[in-house]
Every structure is written in structure tokens, then in C-alpha cells.
Amino acid sequence: MKVAIVGATGAVGQELISVLEKRNFPVSELRLYASIRSAGKSQKFRGKEVSIEALPETPLPVDVVLASAGGSISKQYAPIWAQQSVVVDNSSAFRYEPHVPLIIPEINPQAIQGHQNIIANPNCTTAILLMALYPLHKAFRAKRVIVSTYQSSSGAGASGMDELLHGTKQFLAGLPVEHKTFAHPLPFNVIPHIDAFQENGYTKEEMKVLWETQKIIGDPDIKLSCTAVRVPTLRVHAEAVTVEFERPVTPEVAREVLAGAPGVDLVDDPASKRYPLPLTATGKFNIEVGRIRKNLVFENGLDFFVAGDQLLKGAALNAVQIAELLLKPVAYQ
Amino acid sequence: MKVAIVGATGAVGQELISVLEKRNFPVSELRLYASIRSAGKSQKFRGKEVSIEALPETPLPVDVVLASAGGSISKQYAPIWAQQSVVVDNSSAFRYEPHVPLIIPEINPQAIQGHQNIIANPNCTTAILLMALYPLHKAFRAKRVIVSTYQSSSGAGASGMDELLHGTKQFLAGLPVEHKTFAHPLPFNVIPHIDAFQENGYTKEEMKVLWETQKIIGDPDIKLSCTAVRVPTLRVHAEAVTVEFERPVTPEVAREVLAGAPGVDLVDDPASKRYPLPLTATGKFNIEVGRIRKNLVFENGLDFFVAGDQLLKGAALNAVQIAELLLKPVAYQ
Question: Which residues in chain B have their CB less than 8 angstroms from residue A305's CB?
């Protein structure tokens, strides 16, 4: 397959290149696109240098476009790319269009059927949540979900990570902490504000988790409320999750379900201080789930904690997995 | 009043000294006690040096003992101190004894009646939560509460703060990050583990929030579930809170209630990027509450975010406020 990465120099773009390598994706040709600033530079892929091109305004000469250059670029160009290629889009520009499949391959691969050359990659927080929630939902049927997030600086791209590191150094040197990517200084702080505020008082990040959960699991009746908080970590989004199920559930059975779930590492041995952590989930394809316990406010309720690398399962890995579905025409198309 | 501070050199002890000064507490004599290591050092109070003494095994020659030297010291000595003084104890050693009042002065000052010389100061997370929850509970009656916390390193005392700062420097220098106070390295990480794990899978920190909420608001039927997470901040515990109420509630009316609540700063103007933050709540007596919005899973539900300095309202300030109640015999005794 001829593959293009748009936004190749960004945090997700860099992971896309690495994930294509690690998963041995059958790339016959790789084209890398970025802003005019980066054009002319090059990037190693499977031992060879691939030069980075400025993005043209035309269709791209590839089979698959993996797009991760932000919503406005996708909105403008994806329809053009889709004339000749299948676009896997990491932005939120098309996620809520009824004819655009929104896919987590472990959960709803069948949704790829009948795609019209644009397929959406979900929001990172949603993808990490659903990897743990969906297997439990299948077994016990989730009715109400309450999520509080601990989202890392790189959720805002490479500039978010740089701002946290630079600001931390400024703080330790007793200097004023500069900030631009985040609404407030992030070092030694937490900020309950990710993406734009909506009329109902929720941020768009928080609403995405509801909207995308309903679309991906195909249940418009599931209720979900989220508080999305930026914390001073470099990678990995962690989430504290409370779920009320329709059917009776115990932590023991939930652990069995999750131990057998694809893409999930059960890390749940508090006596040995083993539970999901940003530091241990960093760089891992699987998401970690643990702290599984009976929730104390719902009759059929569970609490658990997840941590997943939002640049991988929350972005690049999931996008490459979607592209892999395109290679399996018998099963899904 | 003759006042003793036990644990004077700790993070809370230092704040106790400062709060007594700032609130102009009528101190006729101040005695400072700490471990034998610190004995002989001295500490400024109202411009004069007060020498730090090693803790004797006898009653202390004061009217009030403000104790903040950990649960085992309190367990051993508080009954001895209580022979001659009223003890305001910051540990969890006596909080759940039926005859020991557990008090937040804005909420249940009347509970001081009939005390037997030991009065307990609540857990920091609980105190900060209830400052916002209780006024809403009075107005709309809370039935179910779900809390996820973002707790700072100084919740583990001065050594927690030191470990975070030292570890952050190690991390930035590319060195291995040492840890001892925390179960894992805290810099650029979050750790869903505070205090010891219980048989039900919750930590003691998480269970304290339930037990103490029921005792302080005097409602053994309120249901509450908590996930307590350590985050790399220096001061202030933040909490994402979901509440189901018995009576209908709107964010507008909740804002009015909280705007009039004692000890609460309503910081809720997302359009101007104003919401509770550890950085802005640091050093403040009042707790901050904001991000108030209709919860999306409960009919009569609210979500909000609180941030409060856990060394102040979560510890030293509340203890001094309890001591102030002792000065008002007419109203409360």
C-alpha cells in the first residue's frame, strides 16, 4: 500500500511512522507531508530517508492518507484526498457525520463497511476509555458512566510537552512560568479545561467522550458525564471511571472479562502496588486497567482506573489498525 | 489561651503557627513540640523566638493541644494530654469514635457539645469536598456522590513535597528518579494509591471520605464513592465531584447557594478561563468551587470542581477554627 502521513512532524505523526514500522504494515511507498516550514527535511523509515514535502492542494498519489494535522486542515483537504485515497482522519472534523465510520478496530470493525473514503479515528480519551468499558458493556450492559480524566501535556501535541518541560525548568529556577498552549501554567498545577467550553458548561473534550461512546458502541441511550483535566504528565491519559450496569457484576468477573479483552493489560494487584500508571503505560500499545472494585453508590456498579498512551491507542496505533482493516476485504468490506 | 502545637516542624505544624498569627488567635503562651531531632531549635511567633521542645510523656501545661504528628503519636498521647487540655487532633486516630466530635466549624459546630477533651479534625479531602457539598446538600439533599481527586504531594507532608521537587530535578537531569514517600515516582506521573488498601479494594483515604462525610453531615444514608489520586502538584487538593440530589437543582441556583456559603470562593467563569486551580487556591483560606454544570447521567445531578489548600482548610485552618469554637462557650457549649 502507498501510504501518506499528513502532519508527519507532529507528536502523532512521529508515532504513526514508528507504528507502521513496528506493526510491519505493508508500505510500498511512504509520503510524508507537513507544513512548509518542515519541507525539505527528511525522516528515517525502515532505514531509508524519506523527504518531507509541503502539502499540495491536490489529491495525494497514495492508497491511504493518515491525517493528523488538525481539524481545519482535515476539513479543507480530506474531501480532496478522498477522491483518490482512503483517508483515516485523526481530527474531530468528520467524526459526527452519520456517513463517516468512527472506528476502534477491537470494538466496531464492521462499521468500516460502506465507508465513503473518509474514516474517523476517535478522540484519545474515548478510545482509551472504551478499550476497557466495551468488554464490560458487552458482558453487563453499561447504563451510566462517570469519568474524570488525568490527561497528559502531549494531548495538546509536541508543543504541550515542550511547554510543560520548559515551564517546569522555569519554575524550579524561580522564574515566572510562561504558557501559551495551555490556558494556565501546567507545571505543578492541574487545569480542568481542555478544548472549548460549550453552552452547557462542558468542554468539547468532555462532550466528545459522550458523543463518540454512543456512536462507537452503537447505543444512543447510554448516559455518560465527563470531567476532563489536564495534569503535568508527558504522555498517557489516565481516567477514573464509575459505571452502573444493567446486570449484576462483581470485580472478580470483571477482571476475568478484562483479562481476556484484546488490547488490554490487566494491572490490578494493589497488594504489590500494581495498578495503571502513566509511567508504566507510556509507549505501550495496550491500555492498562486496574483498581477494579465494587462501586459504593450503584447497586450494579464498578469503579476502575485506566491508563493508555494517548499518542498510540489514543491516536497513531488506532489509525494504523484502521488502515489494517482495509487490508482485510473479505472480513469487513 | 495557652496553646501547644505537637508536630510543630511538619508541613501542617508550620501552617498552624502561621494561621494562629493570621487569625489573631488569643494566645497567651505558645509551646512547640516536635521530635527529639528538632528539640533546641526555635521558631518565630509574633516576632518572638519560641524554642522547640521534645515531646514529654506527660500532660502538657496548656489549654489547647493542636496535634499534627501522625496517628500513632496521637493514639498514644492524646488520652494523656486530654487529662488537662482540649486536644484538637489532626490524625485519623479518633475520628470514628462515637464520642469524639468530628468538626468542620462552618458545617457542624454544634457537634462540639459534650466533647470529652478530644476533638477530631477531618481528613483534608473530606473537608475540602464538604465545604462545597454541604451547602448544596442543605438546599437540595445529596443522595449519591462520586468523587475523583487530584491530591498534592504535600498531603504526604513536607517529605512528599521535597520528594516531588527533588525527583523532578532528577528527571530533568536524565537521572533515575528516587522515591520513598510515594509508592512510585511522582514527577510526571499520577498514582491512584493514597494510604493503605482495604479489603474492599478501596484505599483508606477513599473510605475516609465516605465515613467522615456521613459523620459530619449526620446522614448515614448518603452514598459516596471516591477514587483518590496523587498528582505532581505541591499544594492544594482538587476534586471532580458528581452529585445526585433528591430535589431538582439547576447550576444557576447552585451558584447562588455557593456564592453565599462561608469559606467558599465561587470561581466559575469559564469564558474568562476562571475555574478552580491548585495554583490559585494555594495559600488561600477559602476553597474554590467552579465548573458547575448539570450532570448528564442523573435527573437531578450536578458536576463541579473544587480546589482547596489541604494544609489550610484541609488541616491547620480547620484545627484553629475548632479551637476558636472553644472560645465561644455561649453559642456552642
Answer: 192, 227, 229
